[in-house]
Amino acid sequence: MPEEMIGTVSDFFARPVVAAIELTASLSVGDKIHIKGHTTDLELVVESMQIENAAVNEAKAGDPIGVKVSERVRKGDSVYKVT
Q1: What is the pLDDT of residue 1?
Q2: Neighbours of 21 (CB within 10 A)
Q3: 18 in Cβ contact with 34 (< 8 Å)
Q4: In angstroms, rounded to a whole number, what is the distance separating the alpha carbons of residues 37 and 79?
Q5: What are phi and psi of 36, to 5 degrees?
Q6: Would you say the pTM of this structure is higher than 0.90?
Q7: Looking at CB atoms within 10 Å, which of 4, 49, 50, 72 has the fewest?
Q8: Contact at 8 Å (CB) between 31 and 49?
Q9: Distance in angstroms (rounded) separating the CA atoms of residues 40 and 52
């Protein structure tokens, strides 16, 4: 499936398991994303996301978001939207 780069991981929090992502394109709840890095290869559907601890359904380029992930990701990992 084609993928479009939409941002990078800027931080990771172990409790709760959340990736902070700096977006370069828009993202919505329900979109499928692929996080890739040196030791990371994770695909997931965005079930919820937050901007400054407030739940949102959509985010645009430039927004710093938090997304719940199922495993560890690393700062600098690339985030792609699966289209």
Answers
A1: 76
A2: 27
A3: no
A4: 9
A5: -125, 140
A6: yes
A7: 4
A8: no
A9: 25
